[in-house]
Amino acid sequence: MTGVTNTPSSTSSSPSSSTSPDADAPAAGGISRRRLLGTAGGAAAAGLVVGAAGGAGVATAVSSQGEGPAVLASLGTAKAMFHGKHQAGITTPLQARGHLIAFDLAPGSGRKEATALLRRWSEVAQQLMAGRPLAGEDTGVAFDAGPSSLTVTFGFGRTFFDRTGLTAKRPVELDPLPDFSSDRLDARRSNGDLWVQIGADDALVAFHALRAVQREAGDAARVRWQMNGFNRSPGATAAPMTTRNLMGQVDGTGNPKPSEPDFEKRIFVPEKGGPAGQEWMAGGSYAVVRRIRMLLDDWEKLPRGEQEAVIGRRKKDGAPLTGGDEFTEPDLQKAGPNGKLVIASDAHSRISAPEQNGGAAMLRRPFSYHDGISADGVPDAGLLFICWQADPMRGFVPVQRKLDRGDALSKFIRHESSGLFAVPGGPREGEYVGQRLLEA
Ligand SMILES: C=CC1=C(C)c2cc3[nH]c(cc4nc(cc5[nH]c(cc1n2)c(C)c5CCC(=O)O)C(CCC(=O)O)=C4C)c(C)c3C=C
Ligand SMILES: [Fe+2]
């Protein structure tokens, strides 16, 4: 078994990087603590910011061609851990590139084929996340680059369980999401037996992993849908900051922070004390995936002040309209001189806030997407909205129900596809992802 080690110096060139003695120790979420801290101090872990790793530091890393040490820029050396309590790609800081791909098991494929597939996928993910070339004939697409924060995250859809004879192990959390009145969902681009999320700070590293995952599916599974996304590149901003979406808003500020006492409980399935038969989900999380089109032609016509009223936050810095900076608590009761609420009753950030939803919270970790111009001449662009929670009924569902009833943003977005996946905990050394489900 090949272990995964931390790369020396990693992204420590960021001005805000920690000098903590155990800064290279793996942190929750499977990325070195130095990377988490180095990305944006406390805010990194919180807001899953991008934009930090572009410092001038260099590090020595093993060349992906296996020809001895090569000097890589700091971005390339950053390495997420394959093994750990949770799979990587959940609390990992946002990466610049993302691919989401869903598969259906091929006719005739059952538990045996699925088990072999998860073994192959895990091996590939482990090698590539460590920055090593694949055994056999590697395509070479990622030669010269380091792991570049690559994460490959695997999930199971509701239909997987019937197809593999594991219906008794299917968690109730995978019950279909309710219909929402504003849904315009394309079933062919929704759900799937298996889901893989790939993220990396280099486009070629991400593509290389995507092709490897597709190839290893072999005859066992067929691609159901694929979506490609992006975020800001690390180092593009003067200082690390929360990312922006394609509407130009600072997006991610209100995310639960790993430093909060209830973070683990909200985002991850407990390691002990869960329902009988669901032990395989210990340390896992449920991912809700929505492809949300932004109606950018309409949005961009709206004056800045009205755009800000739709969200309840300033565009320039993401601060609440009630004042302060990005991380100041919004004052939801504050009225202006005209007696009206400063943050309107239909403002997106008011309606989605945990305190308005019985504490319901989720960790949003999206990618933007742009798939050109649709037949009707408008941009096919928006958000690959991915949110993580221990239970969708205490995360996405109540919040989306409320947004569906009266969110000012809903005039400018359209939910076009949907998926719900059970993402098991991270594999232990020597294990493959999902082994505790498939071999129990
Ligand atoms: C059901 C969950 C949510 C969907 C769907 C959703 C879509 C969506 N959101 C934005 C932009 C922003 N959202 C912001 C905050 C925010 N959004 C949700 C949930 C959903 N958003 C939550 C739980 C929160 C946090 C609320 C809080 O804690 O106060 C913000 C404000 C900044 C921030 O906190 O991130 C923006 C901007 C878009 C563009 C979008 C669909 C395309
Ligand atoms: Fe939102």
Automatic annotation (TrEMBL):
It comes from the Bacteria. It is found in: Cell envelope. Residues 242-426 form the Dyp-type peroxidase C-terminal domain. It catalyses: heme b + 2 H(+) = protoporphyrin IX + Fe(2+). Residues 87-231 form the Dyp-type peroxidase N-terminal domain. Its EC number is 1.11.1.-. InterPro entries: Dimeric_a/b-barrel, Dyp_perox_C, Dyp_perox_N, Dyp_peroxidase, EfeB/EfeN, TAT_signal. Its cofactor is heme b. The keyword Signal applies. Residues 7-28 have a biased composition (Low complexity). Residues 1-29, 310-337 are annotated as: Disordered. Pfam families: Dyp_perox_C, Dyp_perox_N. Keywords: Heme, Iron, Lyase, Metal-binding, Oxidoreductase, Peroxidase, Signal. Its main location: other. Binds 1 heme b (iron(II)-protoporphyrin IX) group non-covalently per subunit. The keyword Lipoprotein does not apply. Belongs to the DyP-type peroxidase family. Involved in the recovery of exogenous heme iron. Extracts iron from heme while preserving the protoporphyrin ring intact. This is Deferrochelatase.
